Amino acid sequence: MILPRTLFSYLLKSYLRTLIFVLTSISSCLYIINIFDILNRLRKLIIPLKNLLLLSLMKIPHLLFELYPICIFISLIFFLDKFSKTREILISFVSGVSIWKFMQPFLFASFAISIFMITLFQPMAAYFKNSQMMMEKAIESGNANTYLYDQEGMFIFETLASENRIYTSRYVIPETNSFLHMSILILDKNNKFLKKIEAEKVHLDGNKLNLDGLIFAVNDAGEKIEAPKFLETNLNFKNIMERFSSPENISFWRLGQTSKYLSKFGFQSSEKFVNYYYQILFKPFYALSITIFAFCFITLSQRGSYGFRSLAFGSFFMLMIHGFKEISTKFLLAKDFSNVVSEILPIILIAICSYYYISIRFEKATYTKE
Fold it and tell me: Does residue 148 or residue 257 have the better pLDDT?
């Protein structure tokens, strides 16, 4: 049974206003926290105020994308508390609307918001995070002669007339236009594997990549071949520095194919790319399970302090649920379960437990005021 259209629209619009308020409030808090975090990490460097504020701002979209399921939960707690105080929930239940019907607009909103966040918001967040990361590294390299290091592995695509390439590296030396421990995957124009080269050090000199300290090179048959001493390239060091990325810096539209290539051809950073891709892919279902979980804290009480207690207890259990989901996923991956199983099992468990708890509390013959 579907909720009447008028009530559905009314609940949806009211909830979206609450969600916007929560997102704005959390963004403001994150902005201030980011400023202190940047000052702490770069405390030995001199950072102009303009750059400090810009660095903090560019990180907000990525943090909102990572935290939006929690934002949905907090918004629902606020919204349900408000409707309890005005007795609109009680009136809806007495008039014959079941808890599951009442939940429909919120489930719809959570799924729709997730699709928007993944398809449109995440690519924008990835762009700004990449810009923020490169701006920070530029500040660091401008103040000290150190390697730029990315623990999760950086990569860059290049398209040439006769082939495509994927480069990965973890260390960059801006002063000498060099890279350490670089892997180069070479594909034909149809993205068929041709060969793979691993070099201990790579130096960019004009339109050439000079390869030094070569480890090995293999062809499409897996046979070791003689590695070239240099490769022609259209890249320059500036656009390489701008485009090197970690998984969070990649648009969702490119992340799947990137993960596939890196995993297929044995790049060191492939596991993190694949895991992050599936984490994003299942976020809509995680948001749905969190929406159901939020209804475990619904109350018909109009006592003033009850809403605060619901928010406090709800936030505490939300952090526990989020931690359970992250730990369970990593545990299942460590036990060699597939990414799909590792992501979906904790989500299903959260949804099922929430469903039975709500059923016990609210599916009775009559609803009475607590």
Answer: 257
What is the C-alpha to C-alpha distance for residues 216 and 308, in angstroms, rounded to an integer? 62
What does the block give as tokens for 162? 């006769």
Pair 69, 286: CB distance under 8 Å = yes
| pLDDT at residue 151, as a whole number | 52
Most confident stretch, 99-108, 155-164, 248-257: 99-108
The gap from C-alpha 353 to its chain's centroid, in whole angstroms, comes to: 25
H/E stretch holding 153 = strand 148-159
pTM summary value = 0.76
- How far separated are the first and last CA of the chain, in Å rounded? 27
Query: What gap in Å lies between CA 245 and CA 262, rounded to an integer?
Result: 13
- Residues 73-85 pLDDT 10s: 999 988 888 887 7
Please classify residue 179 by burial: count the beta carbons closer than 10 Å to its beta carbon, then call 0-12 exposed, 13-18 middle and 19+ buried: buried
Q: Which residues contact 156 (CB under 8 A, 6 or more apart)?
A: 166, 167, 235, 240, 243, 244, 245
Q: Is the pLDDT of residue 186 over 60?
A: yes
Going by C-alpha positions, the residue among 281, 271, 360, 239 that lies closest to residue 119 is 281
Q: Give the span between the Cα atoms of 305 and 301, in whole angstroms.
A: 10
113 HSE (CA, 13 A, CB side)? 26
* Contact yes or no for 55/132 (Cβ under 8 A): yes
For 133-145, the DSSP string reads HHHHHHHHHHHS-
In sequence order, which residues have a C-beta less than 8 Å from that of residue 112 and are 6 or more positions away? none
pLDDT tens readout for residues 236-278: 765 555 445 578 878 888 888 777 766 665 555 678 888 999 9
Bridge partners of residue 165, in order along the sequence: 158, 186
Q: How far is CA 279 from CA 63, 292, 318, 341, in A?
A: 15, 19, 18, 11
CA separation for the pair 269, 311 (Å, rounded): 39
